[in-house]
Amino acid sequence: MTDQAKAEQIVDSYLCCLSEGDLEGVVALYADDATVEDPVGSEPITGRAAIAEFYRGALAMGIKLRRSGAVRLAAGEIVFPFVCASEAMGAPMEIEIIDHFVLNAEGKVQSMRAFWSEANIRPMAAEA
Amino acid sequence: MTDQAKAEQIVDSYLCCLSEGDLEGVVALYADDATVEDPVGSEPITGRAAIAEFYRGALAMGIKLRRSGAVRLAAGEIVFPFVCASEAMGAPMEIEIIDHFVLNAEGKVQSMRAFWSEANIRPMAAEA
Predict the structure, then answer these.
(1) CA–CA separation, B51 vs B40, rounded Å?
(2) Cβ of A74 and B39 within 8 Å?
(3) Cβ contact (<8 Å) for B72 and A120?
(4) Are B75 and A40 within 8 A, CB to CB?
(5) Contact A115/A89 with Cβ under 8 angstroms?
(6) Which of the listed CATH numbers 3.90.930.12, 3.10.450.50, 3.40.50.2000, 3.30.9.10 matches domain A3-118?
(7) SnoaL-like domain: from which residue to which, for each copy (chains A, B) (predicted)?
């Protein structure tokens, strides 16, 4: 498998596990001492236990994620654009996000940073 | 002007100047001691003179750039997806790239990192 194919597999597993509510599957992508900064500028959280807690909150919102462009891989770092849809706030909405993963030697995510702000949130026009 | 609007202005100026061959316009977006790492994993170059030299080479290839998704701004950092088209290699091709800009207090680009690899290069199907 090429490095690109491996990177796409990690990204698609991430989006799929989050969309299907598979908390263990998401956490398994991370290194034991990984950090998550979501959104960029917030205090990073560290370690699988804290990361599981973070995603438990996200999954409770019934989010659905879909990739919206190519996975870019360079020197063990991955960035990719995606859309996160949720109905948790009463009205359906979407957030346009770009995630940045730094992989460790074992191919686990050592660092995740999510780039988005309120300016990237939009109401959903219609049912998909 | 909102921070988001300022970020979009920086990004659109960058893409427009590169597409129009406006070297001075591109370099003016950068801080004096800025760094450029393109692609991620290559040796970063530092300072406006070296950056101008780098873009002079890129502009010689007659590149045309267009944004392919929303500008994500968080805590003074910007990421955005775009497509870089070129005919310099004989056959028209496109590269799917995500750039990461870190802004300084004056709103100049202090650090640029470009995420792409050969896996993101594709032949162009037809004339635009």
Answers:
(1) 15
(2) yes
(3) yes
(4) yes
(5) no
(6) 3.10.450.50
(7) 13-110
Q: How much is the pLDDT for A128? A: 47
d(CA B97, CA A71): 9
Output the six-digit token pair for B48. 């406006």
| Chain B contact for A75 (CB, 8 A cutoff) | yes
Residues in chain A where the model's pLDDT stays below 50: 128
For residue A81 the two structure tokens come to 């654009």
Q: Would you list the domain boundaries of chain A?
A: 3-118
C-alpha to C-alpha distance for A23 and A66, rounded to whole angstroms: 17
Residue B110 has pLDDT above 60, yes or no: yes
> Which residues in chain B (100-119) have CB-CB distances under 8 A to chain A?
100, 114-117, 119
* Average pLDDT score over chain B: 95
CA distance B103 to B107: 5
ipTM above 0.85, yes or no: yes
Pinpoint the alpha helices (H) of A40-109. 48-59
